[in-house]
């Protein structure tokens, strides 16, 4: 039994370095992949995609059979989001398989040509993140120095794809070829050292695997020996039961002989008395006594032998009992170990569950914050503010501004209570919001009973003069229908003036605690003058707007009017869409031909 325990202990000690070595090697690979996946996720916080407002989700591609980085990105995708969007991870086995993704990772060790990859992804707004490729050959390139991840950033190549790069990310990257060459030399030296270490580890692992096979064979032989010993123990138990039964029979015989001995002693006493009485017959009696003494001595010798046998049997019984106690103790310790391991697993599982719930709560709060920001600012501006902490003011050379104002608002509102006044304004402005959003126009603000919006900001487009004019026609028709309903119900009503002007302006975010997206410039002032110089129920546009829409809309020339601070200006009323561009010649609803022209601008 001791020999078997010794063999098992020796096997465990020899296998321990094998298990530790393999586990450490696997953990190092997983740790490197985890660090790189965290870097990749960090890049998405400091880089803006030119078309990110159209993303339904955020796709990350892995080129090649890099299972470790793919697995870490998959884990990250289950608990994190990029700019409020779900992360999807895809794997491509060749350059030709690459589909539309937002970010593509590739490692040089898989042998892919970086020029072919760049040609495949050119013009698709795909951020290329590579590892161990030559300096300035990619967009972002990883290199590992002394177990620390570094990265090189090719700002020129990224800007050519219209990426917006945070200065924070640029400051953290390698920017000069000298730094890269120095790091590359260190990497090459380190790589050679690592290759030697890996080669030695592989050799050691191979030797350990052979040792493991040999030890496995020893374990199998030991198991056979254990089974044999267990069989012998069962046989010894059977023999012990038989010996105990025989011992009881022997004990009974001994008791009977002791009783016989007592009787004989009594007989001897009687005989001694008779000797004293019968001295004359002494010779005869002495012979009888000698014989009896010999018999007593023989019986005493047998008794001593039986005592020795009984003592040996008791010693063997104590040894067997000690072995049983030790076996029970070992089983008890094993049961305690199993319980402790199960308890630790249960606690860890509960902690992981609580952590997952906390992560869900954080993501929910982040989504609420993002929705609130999008209600205040345009989507593109809100995303820029989240990524960089600020939004850059931008100049727009072609933008169209529209103002509306209710005539007679002050007089009519004086006879309304506050609740009805706000309800009526809310009814109109909600409808205005629906119309301008449908035509890709940005609402800027309301000023009292005035409403201001602009087309061509923050997303630039050439169709904004036409889209704003279409929205103005729809708002005009809505107000005309509302006035008719008010007249039929004999209720007071407001009449609306609309003014439009096209030109250049500046747009940006103002405020520190309460953000506001606003526009500035002479174009804004001129659009306001178009509204104030218009008439109720009419859409008054400037000459610059007229020149851009005249081929698609019927307009009435009003002539020149004096405008405060501007002098005389030509003005036009928009009557409706030209028949060839409207549905059934209705002049207010664009047909499919007009919509196709708008989509191509």
List keywords for this structure.
601 residues, 7-stranded mixed beta sheet, single chain, 8-stranded mixed beta sheet, 14 helices, alpha/beta, elongated, Alpha-Beta Plaits, Rossmann fold
Task: Give a structural overview.
The structure is a single chain. The chain has 601 residues and is α/β, with parallel strands linked by helices. The protein folds into three domains: 2-201, 3-Layer(aba) Sandwich (Rossmann fold); 227-356; 393-600, Nucleotide cyclase, GGDEF domain (Alpha-Beta Plaits). Helices cover 60% and strands 19% of the residues. It has 14 helices and 17 strands. The protein has helices spanning 2-45, 67-79, 114-121, 155-160, 167-172, 177-277, 282-376, 379-388, 409-413, 418-438, 464-488, 522-532, 543-549, 592-600, and strands at residues 47-48, 58-63, 81-82, 85-92, 103-107, 127-131, 140-145, 148-153, 164-165, 394-407, 441-447, 450-455, 495-510, 516-520, 539-542, 553-563, 567-577. The strands form three sheets. Strands 10, 11, 12, 13, 14, 15, 16 and 17 form an eight-stranded mixed β-sheet that branches. It has a seven-stranded mixed β-sheet with strand order 3-4-2-5-6-7-8, with helices on both faces. Strand 5 (103-107), helix 3 (114-121) and strand 6 form a beta-alpha-beta unit. Helix 6 runs antiparallel to helix 7. The longest helix is centred in the middle third of the chain and has 101 residues, at 177-277. The radius of gyration is 50 Å and the shape is elongated. The model is unreliable at 4-26 (pLDDT under 50).
In short:
The protein has helices at 2-45, 67-79, 114-121, 155-160, 167-172, 177-277, 282-376, 379-388, 409-413, 418-438, 464-488, 522-532, 543-549, 592-600, and strands spanning 47-48, 58-63, 81-82, 85-92, 103-107, 127-131, 140-145, 148-153, 164-165, 394-407, 441-447, 450-455, 495-510, 516-520, 539-542, 553-563, 567-577. The chain is an alpha/beta fold.
